[in-house]
């Protein structure tokens, strides 16, 4: 009922930058939290950053000072600006959004994007 479309992944050299975007569509009444997770081969999915209503942000220690999360509420879109990328940032990045949808009432939802590959390599 809520669709997420991610973009912006790709191949970049160490020290480079990428910007990920994730746009949500559907019968969305409100969005409470928007975030990015990542999963590297052989590892568990982990939180990279999230942003809540009011603008409060949360970052994994490994990305603090290098990544910046932001949101455009009018577009139901969340962004992840990734600077000073390192080899260990290589992973599939997933967008996650939670809020409420409209139906016969208002119901909570959590949706995941399909993932976008980020590869940092020299």
Search tags:
122 residues; mainly beta; seven-stranded mixed sheet; four-stranded antiparallel sheet; elongated
Q: How would you describe what is shown here?
A:
The chain has 122 residues and is an all-beta fold. The chain is built from no helices and eleven strands. Strands 2, 4, 5, 6, 9, 10 and 11 form a seven-stranded mixed sheet that branches. Strands 1-3-8-7 form a four-stranded antiparallel sheet, with no helix packed on it. A hairpin with a 3-residue loop joins strand 9 and strand 10. It is elongated and about 50 Å long. It starts with a strand and ends with a strand.
Instruction: Give a short account of the largest sheet.
Output: 7 strands, mixed
Rg, rounded, reads 14 Å
Give me the strand/helix succession: EEEEEEEEEEE
Span between termini: 40 Å
**Poorly predicted segments:** none
Overall pLDDT metric: 96
For this structure, the quaternary state is: single chain
Separate helix tally:
0
Q: What's the shape?
A: elongated
Counting DSSP E segments of at least 2 residues, the number of strands comes to 11
The proportion of strand residues reads: over 45%
- Helix share, percent: under 10%
């Amino acid at each position: 009922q809520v669709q997420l479309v991610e973009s912006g992944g790709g191949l970049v050299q160490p020290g480079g930058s990428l910007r990920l975007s994730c746009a949500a569509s559907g019968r969305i009444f409100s969005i409470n939290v928007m975030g990015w997770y990542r999963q590297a081969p052989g590892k568990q999915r982990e939180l990279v950053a999230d942003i809540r209503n009011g603008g409060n942000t949360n970052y994994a220690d490994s990305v603090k000072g290098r990544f910046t999360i932001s949101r455009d509420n009018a577009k139901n879109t969340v962004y992840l600006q990734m600077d000073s990328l390192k080899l260990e940032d290589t992973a599939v990045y997933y967008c996650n959004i939670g809020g409420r949808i409209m139906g016969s009432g208002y119901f909570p939802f959590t949706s995941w994007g399909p993932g976008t590959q980020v590869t940092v390599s020299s």
